[in-house]
Write a structure and sequence with these properties.
The complex is a heterodimer.
Chain A (H helix, E strand, L loop, with lengths): L1 H33 L21 E9 L2 E5 L6 H9 L3 H17 L6 E11 L6 E12 L8
Antiparallel strand pairs in A: 1-2, 1-3, 3-4
Chain B lengths: L5 H18 L4 E3 L6 E3 L1 H16 L8 H13 L1 H4 L2 H17 L6 H18 L3 H27 L7 H9 L4 H6 L5 H11 L1 E2 L15 H26 L6 H18 L3 H12 L7 H19 L2 H10 L1
Antiparallel strand pairs in B: 1-2
Helix pairs in contact in B: 2-3, 2-13, 3-5, 5-6, 6-7, 6-13, 7-11, 8-11, 11-12, 12-13, 12-14, 13-14
Classes of the chains: A alpha+beta, B mainly alpha.
């Protein structure tokens, strides 16, 4: 009983801070292993690096028999693209690629494969010249049942 | 105690505790030496400003945003709602939903807002709401700034060497007026600098790359920003987390300085308001002038956000 009385005020004081620390540690782990943007995920890495949404991007190439072209990401898929660029992991990239494939099919354009290339910018320490550095390539083969015949 | 079981005694104690949680004004501290409650008016002010900050920056998808706005209006209109832990708990939950909805895109201050709303809710359930919230606020600000420092010093490859601000000052349009006014760039210089840092595809090189236009003043501004931000953030983290013998007012002045300087440039007023509200929650009842300073800085950040002051000053200078 005494222990509970002592613990509850401590919880009220420090539970939110403990949550903050736990989320921030997870964010650092995701940033160092899975390329999560430092600016996102609750780790307080904003304004610490140029590796943010403005200097990350994704190039999309759609393939089909007799077709291989670079396509722009539609406005309706911008949020999915932003999520995949901020954290280029399989499930977010697949989600984006499936959305692109579905859109192509809705517009009667053939698609059998969607290739996503996520890049981030690097700036030279001396000259500040910027270049795109690929950080992840993801290939999505459109399932046969939804591929155009 | 004859005829009263242990269970009855516990139930009676719980009822008294529950009544004191809900009926006694939050932010009221029991001073055993005096024997009567002493109100801390800054506690309510911090809660009201939190609600105002929520209204100033509507957030979240359609199924979250109206509920957050409505709750903020309710706590401002009804004094009883201001001290209901359930309302603040609901706001914390809605903020968590907003973060999860498009994870990982939410900005860091939305996370901090969620922790803060949770802290308010927990404090309102405690017997000493004001001091509980002050401690929670101190730990939250201290840890947020500590992680920000860790990122800048240890995890990011391009902050300490100055690249972050050198590139940001010329590429981010929100910093353009400051780069021109303080850094001494002309509009042609700015255009040339942007061309010089423009991204090339991986492995590509220009035969005749444009030279980076970077006056000494701009370089100095970038380095001052780099080390100034780092110094202030380190000071805030250290003073919030440590139990030093330094006067508590120093901690407030450093936080106020950080907000007054940073949010003149950084385009995240919501973060500034949140930090100011959390700082206000740490102010003791007798420190009226300090509370006023927090409230004034809250308004100053509002003006930073709404008035393109750097552009206006630049226009005046160029006339």
């Amino acid at each position: 009983m005494e222990r509970a009385v002592l613990t509850l005020p401590l919880m009220a004081r420090y539970l939110p801070a403990a949550l903050l620390a736990a989320v921030a540690v997870v964010q650092i782990a995701l940033a160092t292993t899975l390329q999560l943007s430092a600016w996102k995920g609750g780790g307080f890495g904003m304004f610490s690096t140029l590796d943010h949404g403005g200097f990350r991007g994704v190039d999309v190439v759609v393939d089909a028999p007799d077709r291989s072209e670079h396509v722009e990401i539609a406005a309706s898929l911008q949020v999915d693209a932003a999520r995949a660029v901020a954290l280029p992991v399989d499930w977010l990239l697949r989600n984006l690629a499936a959305g692109i494939a579905a859109r192509e099919q809705r517009n009667d354009r053939p698609v059998s494969r969607v290739t996503l290339s996520v890049w981030r910018a690097d700036f030279d320490r001396a000259t500040l010249r910027g270049s795109e550095r690929p950080i992840r390539t993801f290939i999505y083969d459109v399932p046969r049942e939804s591929a155009p015949r | 105690m004859e005829g009263v079981s242990l269970r009855d005694a516990v139930a009676w104690t719980s009822a008294v505790a529950e009544r004191s949680d809900t009926d006694a004004p939050a932010g009221v501290e029991e001073r055993e030496t005096v024997g009567r409650p002493v109100a801390n008016p800054h506690f309510d002010a911090a809660l009201r400003l939190t609600a105002i900050a929520l209204l100033l920056r509507p957030m979240g998808p359609w199924f979250v945003r109206p509920v957050i706005l409505a709750a903020a209006v309710v706590v401002l209109i009804f004094p009883a709602a201001l001290r209901k832990w359930q309302v603040w708990g609901a706001l914390a939950l809605l903020t968590a939903i907003r973060i999860a909805n498009d994870w990982p895109l939410a900005d860091n201050h939305i996370y901090l807002l969620g922790y803060w709303l949770l802290a308010v809710s927990l404090a309102l359930r405690s017997q000493d709401a004001s001091s509980t919230l002050a401690d929670a606020s101190r730990a939250l600000i201290g840890l947020a700034f500590a992680f920000a420092v860790v990122w800048k010093v240890a995890l990011s490859p391009d902050f300490i060497d100055g690249r972050f601000f050198r590139v940001t000052l010329v590429t981010d349009p929100r910093f353009a007026a400051a780069a021109r006014m303080i850094g001494g760039l002309s509009s042609d210089d700015l255009r040339a600098a942007r061309e010089a840092v423009a991204l090339l595809p991986h492995g590509a090189e220009l035969l005749d790359p444009p030279a980076m236009v970077e006056p000494a003043r701009l370089r100095l501004f970038a380095m001052a920003s780099t080390w100034g931000v780092l110094l202030l953030e380190t000071l805030v983290a250290g003073l919030m987390l440590s139990r030093t013998r330094l006067p508590g007012v120093l901690r407030h002045l450093v936080l106020l300085s950080f907000c007054a300087v940073t949010y003149a440039f950084a385009p995240v007023a919501g973060f500034g308001w949140l930090l100011l509200v959390m700082g206000l929650a740490q102010v003791e009842a007798r420190q009226v002038w300090l509370a006023r300073l927090y409230q004034l800085t809250f308004l100053v950040v509002l003006f930073y956000d709404e008035v393109p002051w750097a552009q206006l000053m630049l226009d005046v200078v160029q006339r």
